[in-house]
């Protein structure tokens, strides 16, 4: 099989998982792109990658040999960079969130279809062993129809810095709802992406400028920083099928601790996967659980699903799935149609919070 060549656009924290994912899939990573050229050089040096570029346009002009690109920039650039790469004939693996809003993601989907290229998104939590185990139960019919689910990613002290792009709406599109959308996506994946009907949500901005609520990552922390996104959200989404999804997300809220979980109630079984943190934001302090809730004869039974947890949280496995999809050796873990539904829900959550009323979600 032909050796595929990849480039990474955006050389920040997440880029390392993309590079390691490609390397483990036997892909040659040939270039790193970042307007902060020293950062690109540092990452390229670490993995002995030969070329660095200051913009994706320069990359596309000078590298006709390129097959795959990863878009790992701040959210604002996901759509324009992805569309340019698809129009240049490259397959794209784009970080989450898919875009700033559903309209952008529709344009990305159209570009993928027009150019007949794969466009996958980094919903890495789908690639975790716990998620795939629960998905096996769901696909085999043992769960029945999922009536209801709860998607939670709440932090107590987890604002990603002050003054970086994460806390500026113009660059991120929003706070924890759009940043921590993984559990909403995972619940929808388990529910088979039913068409949404209504959203009702409330957001809160308490603790927005309070440094005690900052997460434990080395991100920018400047004086007079712009912090204009929500700090917490509580919401409800109904679906045209009669299903329902509760949502909680926070970066800063007086919760007991960070929790990342999806719980669902099916007609034959319920289920849950959960990661509880001893210390917000530090994966190495996490405790994982995965369970199935059934009736066996006369007895309610809780089954512990024992899998070997993936310490990388599916981040490399999702890249490997992208490569296998392009090579025709695997089914894609995500699709642009699913990303559009997810972003319509996110848009509706923000609109409902702004208008203080339920919002109808158009198909
Ligand atoms: N899947 C996950 O678990 C996960 C985890 C963290 C971040 N992310 C996502 O990955 C993306 C990047 O996050 P990060 O934490 O690496 O951010 P970061 O701030 O550490 O890095 C972003 C990099 O992109 C560069 N950049 C800015 N504009 C660019 C452009 N037009 N072209 C190329 N590079 C550009 C910046 O200079 C910076 O080096 C975000 O969309 C974020 O939501 C995903």
Summary, kept brief:
This protein has 363 residues and is an alpha/beta fold.
Describe this structure in words.
The chain is α/β, with parallel strands linked by helices and 363 residues long. It has two domains: 5-123 and 317-334, 3-Layer(aba) Sandwich (Rossmann fold), CATH 3.40.50.720; 126-312 and 341-360, Dihydrodipicolinate Reductase, domain 2 (2-Layer Sandwich), CATH 3.30.360.10. 31% of the residues lie in helices and 26% in strands. It contains eleven helices and 15 strands. The chain has helices spanning 15-24, 37-46, 56-62, 78-87, 102-115, 129-139, 169-172, 176-179, 182-190, 315-326, 336-355, and strands spanning 5-9, 28-33, 51-53, 68-71, 91-94, 119-121, 146-154, 196-204, 232-239, 244-250, 259-266, 270-277, 286-296, 299-304, 359-360. The protein has a nine-stranded mixed β-sheet, covered by helices on one side. Strands 3-2-1-4-5-6 form a six-stranded parallel β-sheet, sandwiched between helices. Helix 1 packs across helix 10 (315-326), helix 4 (78-87) runs parallel beside helix 5 (102-115) and helix 5 (102-115) packs antiparallel against helix 11. The longest helix has 20 residues, at 336-355. It is globular and about 65 Å long. It starts with a strand and ends with a strand. The relative contact order is 0.17. The model has no long low-confidence stretch (mean pLDDT 96). Bound molecules: nicotinamide-adenine-dinucleotide (NAD). Nicotinamide-adenine-dinucleotide is lined by residues 9-15, 33-36, 39, 56, 72-75, 77, 95-96, 122, 124, 315.
